[in-house]
């Protein structure tokens, strides 16, 4: 072995230990925003997508330096593993279907190998590695974080302010009547269960009939491993009932504090501390479909989330976990449900939705970018001739009917629309089934290469 080879070998050994780097990527979004689809696609792209034509804006692939990614086997055996293979199976079956909504947290670690672009590292190391850690969880759990800033009374008051809004009022009245006729001295198991069931029923009704986004506590809808835990017998008492120091109020306050201490804090400490990078996914199109109230509530929910993630000494996460996120990607998901020339408007709409929360947050200190993307493409884009004119369109398979459709789904407003616009022009963006694709090809996407470049590009130099 020559002295040069010897140095190279020594350096490689040292380099593998000292330079192997680690990145924890947080994928954030409300239920249905597309987190599971995003992680599945990201893993698929990084393990199969080394073809430059498939990821044209991902520099490490474009420059031929990407050596591939594989699922790491260093994951603690006690951690639930992200069901990547099962998700791919759903997407590749005939007909292709979407993976189901997530019911618990799970993690996946990836090892990415690449050749360094330049500098001393490229001379002494044949290859470099980056460890990527990804976590998935039900979106419903994200909205628990703001509860840490409230006590039970404040939370109950907040809930009833929310329930007074026109799109929720009628549904909430039944539960309000039930509470009004409740004996506040009765803290029996049966009473607590009966009222919790009624509250859970209300949350389901809100979600299905009123297209709402804010549902707390999240574990009531998606309990995960906590199904049956006594502290999940939790619902907001009426504002008038909060003024009397009743046994029921005391019991519910106790459940609330246990929920904050034993569920919310550990969950966020485990999953949101030490995040290096973050993706915030927002499904703007479904909210537009659901109407003015839904858009407003989406904005409110995003505001609450961003407030919770606000960094610096004043923020709750800052105080608890000292996060160090230095790059945030804001992404309007499912962009393949509209024609490509609408993507700009979709990005502007997303920026408008997030404008207030971002202004008041410390996200300003992190590098951020906004884009419209589709993690897993469900349509192909093209043009049709109509009245002698070429018009943009998309083609795909309708999720509900299974029918093939070719359509122009409509324009995306570049600004937050007002009620008048919704009255004049209801939005009807379609929901489509994933495109059929063969196993060994990377999943079709829209701008995942841009997302990968923004999130990982500098770490793969
Ligand atoms: N067209 C299209 N639809 C998508 C895409 N990603 C997600 N969807 C649709 O959105 C639904 C929800 O996506 P998920 O990835 O399960 O959302 P999630 O954020 O993980 O939701 P929870 O697990 O409930 O928190 C899917 O079932 C699809 O119908 C995409 O890239 N393109
Ligand atoms: Mg999910």
From TrEMBL:
Domain of life of the native organism: Bacteria
Pfam families linked to this entry: DUF463
InterPro entries: YcjX-like
Record protein name field: YcjX family protein
Species in which this protein is naturally found: Alishewanella maricola
